# Entry
Amino acid sequence: MSVHNTLKPSERMKIPRQDSIEQDPMERSRNFNEVSHGLNEERALIEASRCLECRDPLCMNGCPVSIDIRTFIQQILDKDYARAVRTIREANSLPAICGRVCPQEEQCEAVCTLGKKHAPVAIGKLERFVADFEMERDLFAAPAVSRRNGRRVAVVGSGPAGLTCAAELAKLGYRVTVFEALHAPGGVLRYGIPEFRLPRTILDLEIARIRALGVEIHTNFLVGRTATIDDLFAEWGFEAIFLGTGAGTPHFMGIPGENAIGVYSANEFLTRVNLMKAHKFPEYDTPIRIGRRVAVIGGGNTAMDAVRTAKRLGAEDACLVYRRSRAEMPARAEEVHHAEEEGIEFLMLTSPVRILTDERNVVTGLVVQKMKLGGPDASGRRRPVPVEGSEYALAVDTVIEAIGQQPNPIIQATTDGLQVRKNGVVVTDEAQKTSREGIFAGGDLSRGGATVILAMRDGKRAAASIHNYLLSKVLEQERVI
# Structure
């Protein structure tokens, strides 16, 4: 029996949204421990009581993977936290991760009925609370798995799209093998997101739970080099393949001085720290050069991760250089807020012009130019326009560019008949089918850069499409017989 929330809707609306418990900003800016400790039980129950229990829960429509949000919040009110996380896992195989990095404010919380006049229910924080409760008490129970059908599917890439696709197919009874090019699985969850936002213990645990479904993961296996897609079909015996290799090739601005010592792409910088443990040098043999003054170019979540990481590595001054205003920044509001608390300087309406160097080709400064906003561009945001005569120099030792990325072209170049756009993005239809029969794709490989949760939605859709595709092949064979 569900506990009836005795509070009237008008009373629920008066309850303030509950904040997470967090590390002190000055303390956390010197360590890589998780910034947020989430909600405790008392705060979680108060937050759950704010839910209006809508008859037509719009929040579910806003969730890319269709979690039954109303039900799991009601189960929190029942204090049946283990059941609540099982409800989430019916739709989402990575709840502890999504509760930390999913942009709920743009999705489920954006359409929360309570949010029309008040702060929306903190759905993401409640998801994290029950996922952490399950983890801390070792309450995980593997979802039911259909009888093994013996059919084999390959998943290329172990990021959020690949892991989700693998989990969904395993639950349907398929023998799934994941191929990962790097030495540890997780994709962008491991090399892109810092420990202070997503602890590796959480990621490793969620991956272990996917392995518990019977999924095999092979690391240090670069599809396109170790074996081609056609090899996986012809020699390995896979009947369908999902491509979820992400977008790990960085963009550069093309300004003078980019080849100087002290210039990084955010991809390289974050990979060195997050995957190769550069922040623990010399314990881990991955040195990284960080000067006293660091400038990060960009305004997205990757830029925010890079500038906050630089601060933790010892930069005395770390600033973000962004060519638009605060209102146009694509980074999550929470991450911007945390960065400001940690002492990050924001240079808005400012665009880099050239990088200054000394006689050894080492970075000594960054020349920037003030901008103003003009009319909207193709993205719908107002276009930044240079202000004449506004150039000035910033004294910096390190420059990190975080202005976007595109897919690595190895698979596209070694797979005949795979339709690809100019930027390397693999073309798919709404069912995640590519131009090659039996090959499906999703995540950043088919989007060119998006969020973790949208990659997970692609993985779920692809799993359903692969299941339908292989069922149709069985029916076709039976008709021939």
Remarks:
- The chain has three domains: 9-136, 152-248+407-480, 253-403.
- The chain has a mean pLDDT of 94.
